[in-house]
Amino acid sequence: MIWKKPALFRRSISGAALLVLAACSNVAQAATYTMFRDPGCGCCLSWAGHVEDGMNTKVASVDSNDMAAIKTARGVPQELWSCHTMEVDGYIIEGHVPAEAVAKLLRERPAGVAGIAVPGMPLGSPGMEAGNRIQPYDVIAFGPTGQSVFASFP
C-alpha cells in the first residue's frame, strides 16, 4: 500500500503537485484577445472572425462609445488609428491587421514594439473585403523606439 512506503508517497504527491502547476502554467500562458469597438461598426466583427479563424482562438468584443479614449490610453499614435483596438498578451493591435501578422508579433516579440497597426481601412484587408478590389497596405509596428514597417500586404 502507498502509505506504507513513504518515499513512493512523497514522489506521488510531488508528481501530482507538478501536474497541477503545469496545468496552471498553461492556463496562465493562454492569451486573452479583447477587441474594443464602436457598437455601430460592423467591419470590426468581421475582422474579429478573421482573427478567430486564423489563430484558432476567441476574441471578446467590448463596445465603447469613446474609442479615442481607448486608443489614447493604450498609446496608439493618432496617425495609426483605425476603427477597432485589440489587446492581446501585452500588445496592442490597431485596425485591420491580418491574423498572420498578429501571430508573427506574438511569436517573435520584437524589442521596443508595443503594438502593430493598419491605419485607416484599406480595401481588401481582413474585414474590409470588397470583391476582388485590393489596396496594398503596410502593417506598422509602433512603440517607444518609434514606428517601422512590420509587414506588407497583399
Uncertain regions spanning at least 5 consecutive residues: 7-29
Order of helices and strands: HEHEHEEHEEE
Beta-strand content: 25-35%
The number of E-state strands comes to 7
> Which geometry do the CA atoms define?
globular
Q: Average pLDDT value?
A: 86
Share in helix:
25-40%
Distance between the termini: 65 Å
Number of helical regions: 4
| Radius of gyration based on Cα positions | 21 Å
Helix/sheet category: alpha/beta
**Widest sheet: strand order?**
2-1-3-4-5-6-7
- What kind of sheet is the major sheet? 7 strands, mixed
Plain-language structure description:
- The chain has helices at 6-29, 43-55, 67-73, 99-108; strands spanning 33-37, 59-63, 84-88, 91-95, 115-118, 137-143, 146-153.
- It is α/β, with parallel strands linked by helices and 154 residues long.
- Strands 2-1-3-4-5-6-7 form a seven-stranded mixed sheet, with helices on both faces.
- α2 crosses α4 (99-108).
- The longest helix has 24 residues, at 6-29.
- The N and C termini lie far apart (65 Å).
- Residues 7-29 have low confidence and may be disordered.
Summarize the helices and strands and which ones pair or pack:
Blueprint: H1 6-29, E1 33-37, H2 43-55, E2 59-63, H3 67-73, E3 84-88, E4 91-95, H4 99-108, E5 115-118, E6 137-143, E7 146-153
Parallel strand pairs: 1-2, 4-5
Antiparallel strand pairs: 1-3, 3-4, 5-6, 6-7
